[in-house]
Each structure stands twice: as structure tokens, then as C-alpha cells.
Amino acid sequence: MPRIDITKNEIFEQWKSEVREVIEDDDVAEALRVRKALKMVLDKRESELAANPEVAAKYQELLMELQFQLFANTKDSESLALIQEHLVDALSIPELDIMEKIRRKIFYIEIEEEQISFMIKLMDALKKNMQQFGPKPLNINGKQYPATIQNWILDYDAFPTKNSKRANIDTLNYMSKSPNPGILTKDQREDLIKILEIFDSLKNRIAEYNSSPISGNIEEAFKGFNLAYLMPGVVLDESEVKKLPIDIPNDTTRVSEKVSIAIPTEVAQKRVKPIVPLVNLQPEVKPLNIQDVLRQGGGLAATPVVRPPEKKPAPVPLVDVSAQAEMAQQKEKAREEEINRKLEELKKKIGE
């Protein structure tokens, strides 16, 4: 069987057709198979490719295209490198939806904090992209700058907007009113819009995360917060919560990770009144107030139960008081039944 010359253009086109078909079908498993086969061939023909550097570079581009197809399945460092070094190349592949690949990568990250961390790194990689994009330098504040992805994003990010978060209308305003996009061809303008959409999507999501109550607004995050969840029996109202010494981090790390709450001694000593147990109820015990229990933390298990001190029985009178005793027992029994009924209702509410 004759040896196939992979440096011939028709052989390269066969490989290219195979790669583009995999990307169009969005087939991850097939992309892995084709990439493995192509790398094996290129390794075996290393000497031939060394003598034809232009052909070798074209094959490396095919491997890069397969890497973008596998964007969601690659290591974070490899994904970031693709955005920083090969984004323009990826935009030239009509079968490749780079925005969808990025969304899928982020979706596969299960923990939200790790999602945001990756998005910050991804936006940073985008800002550091030094690939040339456009035939002429950019005019930014009266000075000439190379037409790199980095400078396009700097120019766009500085473009005025009335919105707190950039939207499609801001991209259209930039493309129509800024002088720089005018140097691009129609296809390049469409590609630039894709780049700016990626940038806006990342920036808006990061800003949304940082402005959420639990990550940035301490007063809102702890509004109405009940420390009974941290210290059983301790209940603070809103004014007391605001007095807590809360240490707020100065970075974008979530409050739940870095905020420390030093609970003052007087707060730690503030305990709710214990619920009187149903055992050995005395006639003078008042009926249980359900609303008070709900205000005290919403749970019976979290509240310390203190048994009243035992009292010595009173001397039995010599007179016949059986009628009075029976009436008192009936009242006591009715009171206990009412308390039990209310407790059952409370347990049902807690269970819901």
C-alpha cells in the first residue's frame, strides 16, 4: 500500500472536511476521535511536516478548531488560552458557535462561585487578546493604537452608555456612531459584534453577581436575620442586627465565605424564655402563645427546655373538697388538651 503524502493539498482538504463536519454536527465524542487520529498521523509524519512549515501550520489550525469544539470539555487553562490566542481564528469557522461553546463551558461548572471565577478569568483573557483585527490602527482619544482585540474592547468599554448594563442597543450604537468600526469589512463587523456580545455577557453576569445582596450588600443580606440559626435561643431584631460588628471583604469573594460576625457578650446572653414543659403543669402556668414561639425562632428543638422546680405538695385539707377538686381537674385537663392541640398545629407548620 503506497504511503499517503499528508503534505498534499487534497489530503489536507479531506482532513479539513472531516473536522468541519464534526463541528457542524456538534459531536463531542467524534471530535475526540478525530483529534486523536489526526495527532497520531502528525506525530508519525513529523519529519515531512518540518520540511513544509506552511502545511504544518494548517494542520495545527485544524487541531485548534477541534479544541474549540471541545471547549467545554477542556481544562480551564486551555480554554483561556484559546480565547486569548485564537479567538479571531475561531470566528473564521462558519460552523462554530463560539458563544454557545462558552455558555456550555460555564454551565458545566456546578458551583456558582467557581462559575464567576472562571468568567472573570475569561474576560481577562479576552482583554489580553493581542490578535490583529482590522486593516488600520484605531483612533482612541485622538491617538493611534494597533487594531487588536484588546484595543477594540478598550474602545468599546469606554463608549458612553445610558444603561447600567450594556445591551444590544449599546453594541449597535457603538457600531454606528463610533468611527473605528467603519474601517472593517462587513464580515469583520459581524465578527466584532460577536466579540462584544461575549464581553458584555461576561461583564453583565459578573456585575449582577457582585451586586446581589448576599455578595455585596451586607445590610440587606442580614436584614431581619435571626441569629437563632447560629446560636439557639438568641433572637435579634433589625436594629440590633445593624449594630453587629461585621467585617466586609474588599474583593469579589462572596460574603458567605469571608464575612465574620463577632457576637457581643450581651447578645450571647440574650435568651428567649423557655417553653414550659407539659409534665407536671401547675395551675398557675399560662397557656402557650403560638405567635411568641414563632417569634422565638420557629422551632421547639432549638429552644432550651427548663423544668420548673418541684414543689412540695400542699397539706390535704380535712374538709371534703371532692367536688371542688373534680372541677379543678376538669379545667386542668381542658387546658392541657388546648395546649397539646396548639403544639400539634405548630409542629405541622414547622414541618411544612
Describe the structure.
It is a single chain. The protein has 352 residues and is mainly alpha-helical. It folds into 4 domains: 1-69, no CATH class; 75-211, no CATH class; 218-268, no CATH class; 275-297 and 338-347, no CATH class. The chain is 56% helix and 3% strand. The chain has 16 helices and 4 strands. It has helices spanning 9-25, 28-44, 46-50, 53-69, 76-91, 98-107, 112-127, 149-157, 168-177, 186-211, 218-221, 238-242, 255-258, 265-268, 290-295, 322-351, and strands at residues 138-140, 143-145, 246-247, 260-261. A two-stranded antiparallel sheet has the order 1-2. Strands 3-4 form a two-stranded antiparallel ribbon. β1 (138-140) and β2 (143-145) form a beta hairpin. α8 (149-157) packs across α10 (186-211) and α9 (168-177) crosses α10. The longest helix has 30 residues, at 322-351. The termini are far apart. Mean pLDDT is 76; it is low at 215-236, 246-263, 267-286, 297-306 and 316-321.
